[in-house]
Specification:
Blueprint (H helix, E strand, L loop, with lengths): L6 E5 L1 H20 L3 E2 L1 H4 L4 H11 L2 E5 L13 H9 L2 H13 L6 H11 L3 E7 L25 E3 L11 H7 L9 H32 L4 H8 L6 H14 L3 E3 L11 E3 L8 H12 L1 E4 L2 E5 L12 E5 L3 E4 L5 H9 L15 H15 L2 E3 L3 H8 L15 H4 L32 E7 L3 E5 L15 E5 L7 E2 L3 E3 L1
Helix pairs in contact: 4-6, 5-13, 9-10, 10-11
């Protein structure tokens, strides 16, 4: 669990680091010990993500400015900082990478100010006193941070003789965060615990603290740091690091049901942000991607029932991969939030097309691979790989052999993935169980394929096609991943 810091100090290191450190020390003595976020003292892990988490959770945002701090703002970058100010934590890395690819360097002070204003934080600027060359109230700022000058500022003299303690009472008086006042009872408890610690329970306390830290280790770097400090959990850390080393191979096996010999593994650029749970589930998901060789096939139907087109010849220009199974509840939850809730066997449903895009962006960040929802052409081409062009359903002419649908369902609900026979590419549940989102469609409505446990036998054929709204969440719609090379 991440620590919550009530006060966030923002500063530019080369200009006001000494003032920020001075203010941090004053706050510690003022009763705010352990509640002030100051990156030189208490920031580890992936610093940019941790900074966003702390900023989003703080009550008071203090920014220390010098005359030069905001002198190099670029108006053309305003759009980037608007996006960064309002994005979710999960979207940040994706936007940051876009910005980097566009040749823009990230200004963290500008980002912190823009996000604090966007999140409605209690903002307190600490600025130099007005002079002939500097007037905070008249600064011309870009749109993303222009509201900064509307905040009441506390002013300092930029001289060696000036002490921050002189304006500290004014700052403390304005804070929404209140200092902790220890009662006599609390002090007595602390004294008793200190005595107990000294007479023999130091080991138990140390074990308990180390256990909390170990259970909250997430990434490889966190385990590497903790293994140097722990006494009780050294072997567990070594085991975890061994798992990371095994899992973080650049190449992961991938399947080729037709044994073409073209692909037996795929190269992955793992993110440093991957947890062990995510690594394990991603290795399994990638290993369950099936190689689909490019080719030509007859798409559509002689007698359209849904929104499919009449038969026509279509050519797939490039090889690709598609998931052997529909994405499960557990896979979804581990990738999205590192949570182990949900079934490992039941396909995830009640997810909109827009939700799926967030899931895919997260996969792309964690692996560097071009995961997508399959196009309708990719989906139908893979579904028709039956070894027999006349098969109506994905793997058979008998729907009950391969599909969980309205007439065959014993429970009237979703089945576990892979419960019935696969098609010729070893793809399961392409007919029935849950309908699957595709990339095709317009801005508001996207194609779905395959039919569900509530569909008739006419609606689970390999050619049948339907549409749904991009924000529609239904217990009958899930997803299957595709992967372009």
């Amino acid at each position: 669990m991440n620590l919550i810091y009530d006060i966030f100090i923002s500063y530019r290191r080369k200009e006001t680091a000494d003032k920020a450190e001075h203010l941090f020390t004053l706050f510690e003595h003022e009763g705010y010990k352990g509640r002030v976020s100051f990156d030189r003292e208490n920031l580890d892990g992936r610093f940019d993500i941790e900074i966003l988490r702390r900023l989003d959770n703080c009550k008071d945002f203090i920014v220390i400015l010098s005359p030069e701090t905001l002198s190099t703002l670029r108006e053309e970058d305003t759009g980037w900082y608007h996006r960064l100010a309002y994005c979710s934590i999960d979207e940040f890395s994706h936007i940051e990478m876009e910005m980097k690819n566009a040749g823009r360097n990230l200004d963290f002070v500008r980002l912190e100010i823009a996000r604090a204003l966007a999140k409605g934080k209690h903002v307190i600027p600490i600025v130099p006193i007005n002079s002939l060359t500097y007037n905070f109230d008249n600064l011309e700022l870009t749109d993303d941070i222009c509201l900064l000058t509307k905040q009441h500022a506390e002013r300092y003299q930029d001289t060696k003789d000036f002490l921050f303690k002189d304006i500290l009472p004014k700052i403390v008086k304005r804070l929404k965060s209140r200092p902790q006042k220890h009662s006599r009872v609390k002090s007595a408890i602390i004294m008793v615990l200190s005595v107990i610690f000294m007479i023999g329970l130091a080991g138990l306390i140390k074990w308990s603290k180390e256990k909390d830290v170990f259970q909250n280790c997430y990434t490889q770097s966190e385990f590497e740091k903790f293994v140097q400090k722990t006494y009780f959990f050294r072997s567990e850390c070594v085991d975890s690091l061994s798992c990371f080393e095994t899992l973080l191979q650049n190449k992961t096996p991938i399947n080729d049901a037709l044994n073409t010999g073209k692909k037996d593994s795929i190269r992955i650029n793992w993110s440093d942000d991957c947890s062990l749970k995510q690594l394990r589930i991603l290795k399994k998901m990638i290993n369950n991607m099936m190689f689909v060789e490019k080719g030509t096939f007859i798409m559509g139907s002689k007698n359209p029932v849904g929104l499919e087109n009449p038969e026509s010849q279509v050519t797939i220009e490039k090889d690709y991969y598609i998931g052997k199974f529909e994405v499960t509840e557990l896979e979804w939850n581990i990738i999205m939030s590192d949570a182990t809730s949900g079934s490992e066997q039941l396909p995830v449903a009640d997810v909109s097309w827009n939700d799926c895009q967030q899931f895919i962006r997260r996969l792309q960040v964690l692996t560097g691979l071009l995961f997508i929802l399959p196009t309708e052409i990719q989906w139908e081409y893979a579904a028709k790989k039956n070894g027999n062009a006349d098969w109506i359903y994905a793997g058979s002419n008998r729907p009950e052999d391969v599909a969980n649908f309205k007439e065959s369902s014993q429970t009237g609900s979703i089945d576990e993935v892979g419960s019935r026979k696969p098609n010729g590419l070893e793809l399961y549940d392409m007919s029935g169980n849950v309908s699957e989102w595709c990339n095709d469609g317009n801005e508001n409505r996207k194609r779905i394929k395959g039919g569900s446990f509530m569909s008739s036998c006419e609606e689970i054929t390999v050619s049948y096609s339907d549409v749904a709204s991009v924000d529609n969440r239904s217990k009958t719609i899930g997803l299957r991943l595709a992967l372009n090379q």
